[in-house]
Design goal:
Shape: elongated
Structural class: alpha+beta
Radius of gyration: 45 Å
Number of helices: 19
Oligomer: single chain
Distance between the termini: 21 Å
Largest sheet: 7 strands, antiparallel
């Protein structure tokens, strides 16, 4: 529940603190005093969209801070800590959660949760766990089929929730199989063409039998063969210089002679140098041998080999043009067979998926039937319970029915849910969107919440003028039902009716003051004579009227009788 809310520079409210607490809190005040700003402020704490137009004229920003009492362990605290915030334990398994929201006159907004800055979306996540808000727009929302289905499912409890979850799993499985089968069938021709192209490509690669790095090796070989004469001359000259025949000493002979000269004497330094000359001689001999092999290779090569190399390079170049690189072609040869097997398996896959879809459809049918049965049973109970509530809300002849009829497949089931109202005896039940006036719709909405709260309680309800369009005895019964709802949940109601406010355990009023230049509002808690005066004002517009005060005391006594 929300324990306290503080507003600053929000609309006409300069600064106000609302002590709320458990039970039923009624908020009243003159038209234009700022009652709506209380709901606006609460909406900001619940993550609703911030509007810079709500900032009080002349102020740089509006702020709203709230203190919630929440279970010390649970989904709310887990979400707060996930966002980086924390709560303050207060004993009894409860904790205080501090939340805040600000909006600047330029439209910039900030939010805090548990002492840490957080996106407004975190507040919205918490709101789903903490509050149900009903205003004029929410009465309109009750006209939607989705809202009516959600109301029935809430009332249906575990039986409906279990059946709905089973249906959703079955539906998602069926849809996944159907999507795969449809895509496979639609793409059959394209996949057949892909298989044919892949066979041609694999045959071409297999025939070429490329080797990794072969294109680079062939390029170097072709370069050597194209310049064979120049290379032969260079290699032969080098070979002759190292180990050539003739009268001119070659490098090897000169090195051997120098080594022998050093070996004739006995000196450690010269002996080391002789060893180094021996190593150089061996190196020279190795190089000379390599040059001889190189020349022999060139001698064995000829124009016919160059032609063969260029022909092989042309084959590999074709693969590179097709696949981007020789490595890509080799990789396709390694992986293409598996892909080809997958493409060739389309017929078997279609057959398997067709059977799997039929089995999934059968499971889905069973799940849909079970969900419809659970909803139908819950609909009968909900209709009877709400009808009883409407009789207590000054609609004694009204009858409410919840119709569950076949609809199209969706993630929510195959059911269309419609709340039907017969406001008078003999009248055919009609959709609540067409068969209820504004005042009747308010009472239907309240009756539904009272009934559902008995099986699916919500921590806090906020009603913004739920009594619109009603008065007299009906308003008294609305007050009674709000008080009854407050036995299991916190209830906050903005109202203009004394008959409703009379049943509140906590009565707050928004007071409008004018100093001649600036209009501002404050919020006060009312007790005793002050509360009687406010009740009299609501009844007659005259807080000092003896008749109105008498009537106010009479209404307040109704709450005592109810207690």
């Amino acid at each position: 529940m929300i324990e306290e809310m503080r507003l600053r520079d929000l609309g006409v409210i300069a600064e106000a603190t609302l002590p709320i607490g458990p039970g039923f809190t009624a908020i009243t005040g003159e038209t234009g005093a700022g009652k709506t700003m209380v709901v606006t402020g609460l909406g900001l704490l619940l993550g609703q969209r911030a509007d810079s137009g709500a900032v009080r004229a002349g102020a740089s920003q509006a702020t709203v801070d709230g203190v919630w009492i929440v279970p010390e362990d649970g989904a709310v605290v887990s979400r707060v800590r996930e966002a980086g915030g924390d709560v303050e334990p207060i004993g009894g398994g409860r904790a205080e959660l501090y939340v805040g929201r600000s909006i600047s006159s330029e439209g910039r907004g900030r939010a805090s949760v548990g002492g840490r800055a957080a996106p407004a979306g975190v507040l919205a996540d918490l709101a789903e766990q903490l509050v149900v808000v009903h205003g004029q727009s929410d009465q309109l929302r009750l006209r939607s089929a989705a809202a009516q289905r959600d109301a029935l499912d809430r009332f249906g409890g575990e039986a409906v929730h279990t059946a709905r979850d089973a249906y959703r799993r079955a539906y998602e499985h069926w849809r996944a199989v159907d999507r795969e089968l449809t895509q496979l069938t639609d793409d059959r021709d394209a996949r057949a063409r892909e298989a044919d192209d892949l066979r041609v490509q694999l045959a071409e690669i297999e025939q070429a039998a490329p080797v990794p790095g072969e294109d680079a090796d062939l390029a170097a070989r072709a370069e050597r063969l194209a310049n064979a004469e120049e290379l032969r001359l260079a290699a032969a000259s080098a070979h002759d210089g190292l180990s050539g025949d003739g009268d001119v000493p070659d490098a090897g002979a000169l090195l051997a002679e120098a080594r022998r000269a050093l070996e004739r004497v006995h000196d450690p330094v010269l002996e080391e140098l002789a060893g180094q000359l021996a190593d150089i001689g061996y190196r020279v001999a190795d190089i000379a041998a390599a040059l001889a092999g190189y020349l022999a290779d060139l001698d064995e090569s000829g124009p016919h080999e160059l032609a063969a190399v260029e022909e092989r390079r042309a084959v590999l170049a074709g693969l590179v043009r097709t696949h981007g690189s020789l490595d890509a072609a080799i990789e396709l040869l390694d992986t293409g067979s598996a892909r080809l097997g997958e493409l060739d398996d389309d017929g078997d896959r279609i057959e398997r998926l067709t059977a799997e879809r039929a089995a999934a459809a059968s499971v889905l049918d069973d799940a849909a039937t079970a969900l419809t049965a659970a909803r139908t049973e819950a609909a009968a109970r909900l209709g009877a319970a709400v009808t009883d509530e409407l009789r207590a809300l000054a609609m004694p002849d009204a009858r409410l029915e919840v119709a569950v009829t076949p609809g199209v497949d969706s993630t929510h089931g195959r059911d269309d849910v419609a709340i039907l109202l017969a406001p008078h005896p003999g009248a055919e039940p009609r959709a609540v969107s067409r068969g209820a006036s504004g005042g009747e719709l308010s009472r239907v909405m309240l009756a539904i919440e009272v009934v559902i709260a008995a099986v699916d309680p919500v921590p806090t309800f906020v009603f913004d003028e739920v009594d619109a369009g009603i008065g007299g005895a009906a308003a008294i019964e609305v007050g009674r039902r709000l008080a009854r709802l407050a036995q299991s949940s916190q209830v906050i109601a903005v109202t203009h009716l004394a008959q409703v406010a009379a049943f509140a355990a906590n009565h707050l009023t928004v007071v409008k003051a004018n100093d001649g230049s600036v209009t501002a509002s404050d919020v006060r808690r009312l007790d005793g004579a002050d509360r009687e005066a406010e009740m009299a004002r609501l009844l007659s517009g005259m807080p000092d009227s003896d008749a109105a005060l008498t009537h106010a005391r009479e209404l307040l006594s109704l709450r005592s009788e109810a207690d």
